[in-house]
Design goal:
Layout: H1 3-10, H2 22-25, E1 32-36, H3 46-53, H4 55-68, E2 73-79, H5 83-95, E3 102-107, E4 110-111, H6 116-124, E5 139-143, H7 144-154, E6 161-168, E7 174-179, H8 184-188, E8 199-203, E9 225-230, H9 234-239, H10 243-253, H11 259-262, H12 265-268, H13 275-283, H14 289-292, H15 303-308, H16 315-328, E10 351-352, H17 353-359, E11 380-384, E12 394-395, E13 402-403, E14 408-411, E15 421-422, E16 427-432, E17 436-441
Parallel strand pairs: 1-2, 1-5, 2-3, 6-9
Antiparallel strand pairs: 4-10, 6-7, 8-9, 11-17, 12-14, 13-16, 14-15, 16-17
Helix pairs in contact: 1-7, 3-5, 4-7, 10-16, 13-16
């Protein structure tokens, strides 16, 4: 079996973000393969600890993926502040005889260094075109955990476990490995909190992660972290604003200072993303379909909304409003050129992570979340059939069937983009629906 087939059978997807199936990404031919070790979301600690704990496996998986796409060079992007991890990686690259092919390149400690288009520019100097993806400039991007999963797939191991940081206003900040499908409440309780009635949970990083409606749900391959904060924290209140509330506040207050645009990471890369124009169109009900299309260039990094706007308004929500409206009309933005250059002021508008963390009111919680050996042993798991981009996995098991950990329980539908899913514990299949497969431990 080829490595690409092993990756496909293992059900590997991007271990964060949208969850694009990795086997589909690695069918491209690229000049560079990039390892996203930036982990730019405040408080999350998974990638930096994985690179320190499993450097050989990550380097090997990354290098093999690079050869699979025909890359001439494999570049690891990691923030300069992680000096000890950088030393480990450089030493192991030499020991594994990958010097000359795999190289560590240091990134500034800014947000959003982990945005794949920002990463491509920082590591290669190339700008991904509007509405484009890294392969359009000869790059393929994977993150640290995905590279680890690629190595494990080469050893016959499917994706059945997930690494997650639990952080925030909690007694215990930890990074833990859990079976895919574990009840989220079990993970949250590792924080040392039992009663969450006074708390809200951000699913992911504090910049881009949404506030969960409750503590229910089950871990997927995409989960990266949970940030637990008091319900009255500024960030929770800000993220809990509805679209109608945001529109009302925007109309009442926006003075068109354009700070949201001047600090936008995609605008600084030379794209035409201009949030202040979306605020203008929304506030004055301007019927300009062409002008609205630029909202589709928004990557929803939240820089405009949570950092740039001096009045605390909601420019990202304005972008999102028009993105949804245009999607309903099946209207798409089309770039008017193919090549882009970063704006000359970009270097002077990069936002240091520490400054962002202070602005978010998270400075007191910006502390280590060490990887723990604590083992969660859930009695019941639910593995989602759709935890990736593409079609949901098609179940290949039925209620009452005995399964072993690592056994495939859902396959990719024929002629579809998708990812396989596997049992993360041994037990009995108790329920099969279109949305999930439930397994109870024997």
């Amino acid at each position: 079996m080829s490595l690409l087939e092993q990756i496909k059978d293992a059900g590997i997807i991007g271990a964060g973000g949208a969850g694009f199936p990795t086997h589909a990404k690695l069918t491209s031919q690229a000049e560079y393969i990039l390892l996203n070790g930036a982990e730019c979301e405040p408080l999350l600690r998974v990638d930096q600890q994985l690179m320190a704990a499993y450097p050989d496996e990550i380097i090997r998986g990354f290098a093999e993926a690079g050869r699979l796409v025909g890359a001439k060079q494999a570049l690891i992007g990691i923030k300069k502040k992680h000096g000890k991890v950088i030393e480990i990686l450089k030493e192991r690259i030499g020991a594994l005889n990958e010097t000359g092919f795999v190289e560590v390149r240091e990134l500034p400690d800014i947000y959003p260094a982990g945005d794949e288009q920002v990463l491509v520019y920082q590591l290669t100097g190339r700008v991904v075109p509007e509405t484009g993806i890294p392969i359009h400039v000869g790059c393929v991007v994977v993150n640290s955990e995905t590279a680890l999963n690629i190595y494990r797939a080469s050893q016959g191991q499917p994706v059945t476990e997930k690494y997650i940081t639990v952080a925030g206003d909690v007694p215990n900040r930890v990074t833990v490995k859990v079976p895919v499908g574990t009840p989220i409440i079990d993970v949250l309780k590792l924080s040392g909190i039992e009663d969450f009635s006074d708390y809200a949970i951000i699913d992911g990083g504090p910049m881009m992660g949404p506030v969960k409606a409750d503590t229910s749900g089950f871990v997927t391959k995409k989960n990266k972290g949970f940030v637990i904060l008091k319900k009255d924290h500024f960030l929770i209140r800000k993220k809990s604003v509805t679209m109608e509330q945001a529109k009302r506040v925007n109309k009442a207050t926006c003075e068109q200072c354009r700070m949201c645009t001047d600090m936008c990471p995609r605008y600084l890369l030379g794209h035409n993303m201009q949030p202040h124009k979306m605020m203008r169109v929304l506030n004055y009900a301007i019927d300009d379909l062409e002008g609205q299309k630029i909202a589709q260039l928004c990557c929803q990094c939240n820089m405009c909304e949570l950092f740039a706007c001096p009045a605390g308004l909601h420019p990202k929500m304005a972008n999102l409003y028009f993105k949804e409206k245009l999607a309903e009309q099946n209207v798409r933005y089309k770039p008017d050129k193919e090549t882009f250059e970063a704006r000359g002021v970009r270097d002077y508008r990069l936002v240091p992570s520490k400054r962002l963390i202070a602005r978010l009111g998270l400075r007191d919680f910006d502390r280590p979340a060490p990887m723990t050996d604590a083992e969660l042993v859930p009695q019941t798991i639910r593995i989602a059939t759709r935890q990736h981009v593409g079609a949901p996995a098609a179940p290949v098991v039925s209620p009452g069937q005995q399964v072993q950990a690592g056994q495939m329980i859902g396959r990719i539908p024929d002629d579809s983009l998708g990812a396989a899913i596997h049992a993360s514990i041994s037990g009995t299949v108790s329920e099969v629906t279109a949305d999930y497969i439930e397994i109870r431990r024997n």
